[in-house]
TrEMBL record:
Keywords: Ligase. This is Amino acid--[acyl-carrier-protein] ligase. The keyword Ligase applies. The keyword Ligase applies. One of its GO terms (molecular function) is ligase activity. InterPro entries: aa-tRNA-synth_II/BPL/LPL (IPR045864).
Amino acid sequence: MNPMDAQVALIDQLFDAGLLIETGVDGLYGRSGQFEDVISRFDALITSFGREDKAEVIRFPPGMNRAHFEKSGYLKSFPQLAGTVHCFCGDDGAHADLLQCLGEGKDWSAKQEMSDVVLTPAACYPLYPMAAKRGALPEHGRLFDLMSYCFRHEPSRDPARMQMFRMREYVRMGTQAEVLAFRETWLQRGRELISMLELPFEVDVANDPFFGRAGRMMKNSQRDQGLKFELLVPVNSTVSPTACLSFNYHQDHFGQTWGLKTAAGEVAHTACVGFGMERVALALFRHHGVDVQAWPRSLRRVLWG
């Protein structure tokens, strides 16, 4: 079976089992109670691994400040993934025009205007301006625990490449040595965590999907410097395993962008570990079956106690 056939077979299996619910848009799905329960159990497992670090817990909504989004530089690197929120801001006449377009089956999007909200592309993006407003980091920096629905415009029949999905992150801010030590700790924890789920995996150097000609150079630079690693699990095929966890060292990019300073007054460095919540759930259903009652007892003890 080639990788594409595997993708279609898996998503149809998930639909047939009622674990995912079709909406008519590729990559935009409802989730069943059983699917959500698996994600909740995995979320609790992540928390158990990070509890001793005493991270500050923050939960942002799936939309963020457009001005912050623009300043972040996301559009320079990933314009193909971004999503914005547009709203109707007109009067009665404009409303009539909108309804006429709608009734005639014409494009009515021009009757809307861009709002001050964009869809959050990664759970950490709203964090950096918030942290910068607090002033210099305390001694030994800060650690945050985040989770948010995120959006990336890449419609696909691959169930592991959803357009709206949840991302759990731990974000470390501090000196270069502090954030690299954090990433190394989570590289080890990530391996242990996924091993407990009895999933096959590998960890490999990776790159983000930078756009365009300049993006190709950025991809090569990111890989050459070892700034990003991914924990890969075969979900649709063994040929193209899915990144379920990522371990990222941003250097001083966000520190420079937002004026984040260490206690010593130097530009702060940042790193994060990200968990694709739906992707891990999909990996569990792919490797252990759609009936959670039939999963190995050892795995059920890990997730349900």
